[in-house]
Automatic annotation (TrEMBL):
Superkingdom assignment: Eukaryota
Keyword Iron: yes
Positions that bind substrate: A92, E112, Q113, G120, A185, D216, H231, M283, R293, M294, G295
Gene that this sequence comes from: THI1-2
GO cellular component, one term: chloroplast stroma
Principal subcellular localisation of the protein: plastid
Coiled coil spans: none
Subcellular compartments: Plastid, Chloroplast
Species the sequence originates in: Apostasia shenzhenica
Cofactor note: Binds 1 Fe cation per subunit.
Matching InterPro entries: FAD/NAD-bd_sf, Sti35, Thi4_fam
Family stated for the protein in its record: Belongs to the THI4 family.
Pfam family, one: Thi4
Cofactor: Fe cation
Name recorded for this polypeptide: Thiamine thiazole synthase, chloroplastic
Amino acid sequence: MASITASSLSAVAKTFPLDHPFLGTALPSRKHAAAAASRQRSLAISANYNLQSFHFKPISESIVSREMTRRYMTDMITYADTDVVIVGAGSAGLSCAYELSKDPTVRIAIIEQSVSPGGGAWLGGQLFSAMVVRKPAHLFLDEVGVPYDEQDDYVVVRHAALFTSTIMSKVLARPNVKMFNAVAAEDLIVKQGRVAGVVTNWALVSMNHDTQSCMDPNVMEAKVVVSSCGHDGPFGATGVKRLKSIGMIDEVPGMKALDMNAAEDAIVRLTREVVPGMVVTGMEVAEIDGAPRMGPTFGAMMISGQKAAHLALKALGRPNAVDANVGPVHPEMILASSEGGDAVSA
């Protein structure tokens, strides 16, 4: 098997030179790699403490428990009534939270059913690590501060986790955002034809309703709900499926077969407030509109999330980039893909 692999690689090398677009940029030389490793070693030995005789400050176990419990319960009390609830912390939900939290007066709660937020944005396609982003969505990467390799009509982030971890760290550092991990949105609060919040429960409880006795949920009221639950699945597209089951929308046809060029424009264009009080973003848009799936490209997730943020701002009566009548919009609030024309139209 080793000889087959070696011969295959040799054939590829003869067919495609190292600088051929198919193979991408040539890997750094061993000399450069050794120099980088040496710099890393130099950084490692410059610690601000003695690693040979290291002691932590003393603490009582009960203090650890009290700190976690007190802070989490305070957050639950604070966000029981909030401005915006984002359901789903995938690439669209995180992009929405990033854009929306630029306004420090807007309080944002993120509900994520998984222990680890990020959805499918930790990897590219088929467990490959690179993330492909079509232009002009690279402008959003520039703003967030994610490096990438430049190509003609797209860019490549060398590991998708670089985007996900970067945007997540910036979102969670903002004082007007709280993420509730391992929490599922089991239902919607609807009052007089308007979505007014979400019904929540621990994700593990939601998964075990059939195995236990009654385990009632909790609630979180909000002026606007942004549903970014992704495509259909155990916790996918739960927002739009619930709207259909209670008669607020007529159907959820599901996404069509893959067409990258049609899909990404459609996802951004169709991101909207589908019923009063509820904005749908990301791949959940494809489920409600029957738009094509896009596969392993992520630009539409980012720009759809941005657009959802401005639609939420519009619903809150705040300055935004989708309603010219609201008032002047600060430059940092302009959608990264606005120069793309109708791809960001409401």
